[in-house]
Amino acid sequence: MKDKLAEKLKETLIKIGNKSHIDLSDIRIEIKENKDKDFGDFSSNAAMVCAKKLSLTPIDLAKDVIENLKGIEGIEKLEIAGPGFINFFVTNTSRFKVLEDIFLEGDKYGIKTKTDQEKILIEYVSSNPTGPLHIGHGRGAAFGSVLASLLRANGNIVDEEYYVNDHGRQMDILAVSVLLRYIQLNDIELYYPDDCYQGDYIKEIAKEIFVKSKNKLVPQSSEFFELVKKAKDSEEGLNETISWIKDEEVQNLKIIKDSALKNILSVIKLDLKEFGVNHNSWFHESSLYKKEGSKNSKIEQALETLQNNNFIYEEDGAIWFKSTEFGDDKDRVVRRANEDPTYFASDIAYHLDKYERKYDRVINIWGSDHHGYLPRVKASVSALKQDEKKLEVVFIQFANLLRSGEKVSMSTRGGEFIELADLIEEVGSDAARFFYINRKGDQHLDFDLDLAKEQSKDNPLFYIQYAHARVCSVMQKLNKNQKLDINIAKKNLNLLIGEKEIDLQKQLAMFPEIIERSASKLEPHTICYYLKDLASIFHSYYNDEKIITDDENLLQSKLLLINSVRQVIKNGLGVLGIQAPESM
Q1: What's the rounded Cα separation, in Å, for the pair 476 and 267?
Q2: What does the pLDDT look like over 70-81, one tens digit per residue?
Q3: For 388-440, how does the pLDDT look when each residue is reduced to its tens digit (9 = 90+)?
Q4: pTM for the full model?
Q5: 96-112+456-576 has which fold?
Q6: What is the CA radius of gyration of the chain?
Q7: Measuring CA to CA, which residue among 101, 152, 226, 38 is closest to residue 563?
Q8: Most buried among 281, 339, 383, 548, by the most CB within 10 A?
Q9: Is 206 exposed, middle or buried (CB count within 10 Å of its CB: 0-12, 13-18, 19+)?
Q10: Taking Cα atoms as reference points, which of 409, 463, 364 lies closest to residue 135?
């Protein structure tokens, strides 16, 4: 109905404009759903937007519009409100149609199929593979996964990518951490630096490698043990230890690094799968450094492109990118004086690779601490002569985990973190996903563990799922002669004119718009809000009304109504990647 009204309203305004030789074909028509039924079902400010172009007052234009729209199918009344709003009152017959649509479309109701599909890449989580995912990663994982599902529901082709940071200093520290724990398995006493990874998972990885390697990877040089001793409280000492191993124990370091990476990635993938997160692409940072045949590496190719575009210069032995020419606060180093590319250089190459894969949109899900990184990345995209508008970044605020009202602390390097797997085991994947996305991504989130496990109306997910289960329970109580008969129901929809029955129909009709709006604004949390509102209206209706009645006509119309509620809740939870239980 909303799309139909927008189309009719635009046609009418163009017609009015043509009479004055004014072209209004490019106007954007907004139709708003009214929560207050006193102002009708829908309203539009189109008369106020177009009045000036037509040299009319908004009120006069609104009167002209209403005169031209009289008799439009499905509209009971049109009226002008305030300074020129046009309010539309829908007929009950028109409102009933949503119930038939839901029944016919079933699992596809609200889900779009488009001929002009966009190809979209969403990159999210991308946590350093130096340890298991912890609860701090959960919000970005849930957000990215639901956003991908939402964009698919809006008719797009979506790839989900995890960028594996398997190159650089953090991976070197991981390898040294595992090596030192490996050496300790030989009952060799040695210092373990504070800047190494402290978690028990490091010991477990070391044990696994120890069994497979049969104790062949222990460095024999006394110089190594002196360096480790020096590295106990010194970052410089740790750097020297890493450098020595990379120079003297190249093969051993590679074995340890590859084994640790494989182990941690397998754990990460398993945890994400349990969380309902399924990346179909795993892009390794290390691939950006590899040369294919006689070609340069992807990083070298990207820097060469910047050089050819005159956005590179040399100073103090380092290579710099002219990011200030694109509004960044300072130029950025892309290659250090020792000729090593910076992390930013690999990021430039990675984004160029994304663009070369011909996506219509490239969406990054970043933590809120990366706000300052965006200007230089956008600058590099522009300098590479790519379309900066295709790059979209959504910033996700950190989530605080609360237990008994107290904040739970977490630390990756110190090993004192709560793993995402532990959270899933405690509250379940469904509750974890819902509570992570039940607030706008750029807002702070307090994840209340106790509430997530509570079975009451205060737990929004329980409240929504319980509405679905309640409908299923009603359907199961019916005898063979009372099953939903769509033909009888369709003939008796005029019986569904109670205030809450109308509210339910209006809410159900909003679902396709909610999907579209959530996808266009990249805001999955609005689906959570919508489902909570739908569940609230349903529970109120269920508590006040007797559903199973001896009046066959009334029964069938009510069954179609509540079955429509069940279907939309199922579809909405499906987009969120959450189950719709039939009993609770």
Answers
A1: 41
A2: 877 778 888 998
A3: 999 999 999 988 889 888 887 665 445 567 899 999 999 999 999 999 999 99
A4: 0.88
A5: Isoleucyl-tRNA Synthetase; Domain 1 (1.10.730)
A6: 30
A7: 101
A8: 383
A9: buried
A10: 409
